[in-house]
Amino acid sequence: MKKNSSVSHMAGEYGMIVLGSCLYVIALKVFITPMQIPSGGLAGITLLLNYILGTPIGVMTIVLNVPLLFLGYRFLGKDFFFKTMFMTVFSSVLIDVCGFIPAYKGDILLACIFGGIFKGLGFGLIIKAGGTSGGADVLGKYLYRSMAIPMGSTSMAMNILVLLASAYFLNSLESLLYGIMMTYVVGMVMDRIIYGGDVQKNAMIITCKPKEISDAIMKGLGHGVTAFHGTGMYTGADRMVLMCIVRPHEAGKLKKLILSIDETAFMMLSDVNEVLGKGFKPMSVD
Q1: For 139-174, how does the pLDDT look when each residue is reduced to its tens digit (9 = 90+)?
Q2: Which stretches within 148-272 are classed as H helix?
Q3: Residue 283 belongs to some domain of the structure
C-alpha cells in the first residue's frame, strides 16, 4: 500500500512538471519569442542566441543546461537532479517540435504580461514538484557550496547581465524595460504558486500590558498569541514581546484593539508567505 502511494505521489509530481513545462513552452512560443522579449538566466541566453543567430531554442537549452546539471549532480541529489533533467529535456524537445503553436502578434505590453504569467505558472509548478527552472539555479548552488557566494546574488547578477546583453545586441532600451517587467511578473506568479497565495500578517507587539492585549486578541480575533521576554536597550526596561499571525483584513482591527489598551505600544507588521497550523492551512507536504 505504501509503495502504491509512493508511486502515485511521484506520478503526480512528474505530472506537475509536464504541465509546468507545457505552460512554459506556451509562454515562449506564443508571447515571448514572437515579440523578442528578453529574459534572464540561461533561458535568456538561449532566447538571445535565437534572436541573433536563429539557433533552435530547445537544442541550445539542452546544450547549456545539461553540462551544468551533471556538474551539480552531487549538490542536488538524485530526485532533484532527475526531475530537473526531465524538465529540461521535455520542455526543450517541446519547444522545437511545437512550431504549429500560433504566435501572438498584438500589443507587446500584453505579450509581456501574459508571457510572464504563463512562464511564472510553469516554473512555479515545476519548483513546487521538486524540480528547478534550469541551469542557473544549479550554477547558483555550485557557487554557493564552493565559494560561499549567495544564490540570490548569482541569480540577480545573471539576470542583469543577460538582460543588458539582450538590450545591447537588440539595440533596444525598450526591450530591456519589457524584460525587467516580465521578470517581475514571473517572480510574483511563481511566489503565488509555490506558497499558495497564503499571505498573512505577522504582528510583533512590544507593550507594558501584555496580559490585557493577549486576552483581547484571543477573545476578539480568535488567534493565539506567543510571548517573549525582551529588554529595551535604550531604557534598560523589561518588556514583553507578543507575536501573533492575523489575516490581512484583520490588521486594522488589531491596530484599534492595541491602541484602545496601550497607546504606548510598539507594533511591527510584516507579510508571511505561508502559515501552517491550527486556524490557517493544515500542516502537510504537497
Answers
A1: 766 776 677 676 556 777 888 888 999 888 888 888
A2: 151-170, 173-195, 210-220, 251-261
A3: no
